[in-house]
């Protein structure tokens, strides 16, 4: 399975290289990708807080299409979690001319407020998490460098649930959703798997934004059976989704999207998905090697 994806990626990169050779050298982006860390002002549940947010942008003034990438939940205190950067995903999108915005949600890392564990109420949990994303979007979409009509929501794990929840509101300008192993895993004494399926069913019943989902065979949190149940519930309600159920990835497919080796799995399918929703996919820049 992974060999097939690598062949697809090799063909994709070869085509890009040929196009680049014909058009001349591509502009170079510094390895930092103009990384900025800002505090986005937000009012969530009546509290005025700052959301620690990482932003990467290509050179120039834009406007750039925007990828909002949403992080997962590590074990332990959310405030002790490191700021999410997603360098692998960010590089691929910046190369294609996107600005990448990664907000730390309420109570995570350097963001204010307190994370509330409501995993047994998966639908409400996703909506609660989406409140931070809405605040980040409201700020970013006022910036002159942001293209209001070409936006993608994406997320990994808890961030995937966040992206699907937010996308179910059919936000103007959001053209698609990328779900990397989305969900929320509760160790509490409740049927959290059924709660997740019910959440995706509810989101699919109202959401019309196209989405693509990636779930691996050896995901330690959301295995193939659960992924299939969530997908069936989402699409049965009317949700638009493509499920990429790939095989095993290293020791735990849950981290596939953050691994350089995972690019061969998600990039070819994501490229086709982005093209299908009218988003740019052409490589416009090369990233300077920082080594």
From TrEMBL:
Residues 1-23 form the signal peptide. Coiled coil: none annotated. It comes from the Bacteria. Keywords: Hydrolase, Signal. The lineage of its organism: Bacteria, Pseudomonadati, Pseudomonadota, Betaproteobacteria, Burkholderiales. SUPFAM superfamilies: alpha/beta-Hydrolases. Residues 51-192 form the Xaa-Pro dipeptidyl-peptidase-like domain. The keyword Hydrolase applies. This is Dienelactone hydrolase. GO terms for molecular function: hydrolase activity.
């Amino acid at each position: 399975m992974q060999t097939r994806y690598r062949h697809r990626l090799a063909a994709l990169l070869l085509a890009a290289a040929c196009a680049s050779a014909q058009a001349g050298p591509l502009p170079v982006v510094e390895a930092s990708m103009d990384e900025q860390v800002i505090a986005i002002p937000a009012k969530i549940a009546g509290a005025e807080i700052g959301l620690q947010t990482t932003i990467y942008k290509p050179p120039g003034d834009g406007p750039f299409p925007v990828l909002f990438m949403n992080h997962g939940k590590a074990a332990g205190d959310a405030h002790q979690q490191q700021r999410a950067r997603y360098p692998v995903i960010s590089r691929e999108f910046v190369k294609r001319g996107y600005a990448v915005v990664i907000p730390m949600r309420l109570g995570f890392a350097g963001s204010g407020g307190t994370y509330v564990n409501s995993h047994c109420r998966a639908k409400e949990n996703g909506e609660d998490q989406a409140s931070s994303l809405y605040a980040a979007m409201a700020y970013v979409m006022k910036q002159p460098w942001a293209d209001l009509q070409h936006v993608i929501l994406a997320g990994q794990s808890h961030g995937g649930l966040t992206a699907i929840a937010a996308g179910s509101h059919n936000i103007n300008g959001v053209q698609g959703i990328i779900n990397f192993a989305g969900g929320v895993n509760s160790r509490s004494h409740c049927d959290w798997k059924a709660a997740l399926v019910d959440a995706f069913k509810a989101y699919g019943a109202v959401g019309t934004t196209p989405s693509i989902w990636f779930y691996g065979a050896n995901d330690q949190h959301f295995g193939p059976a659960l992924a299939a149940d969530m997908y069936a519930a989402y699409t049965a309600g009317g949700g638009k989704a493509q499920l990429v159920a790939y095989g095993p990835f290293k020791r735990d497919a849950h981290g596939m999207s953050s691994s350089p080796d995972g690019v061969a799995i998600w990039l070819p399918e994501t490229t086709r998905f982005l093209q299908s929703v009218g988003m740019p996919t052409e490589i416009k820049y090369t990233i300077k090697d920082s080594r």
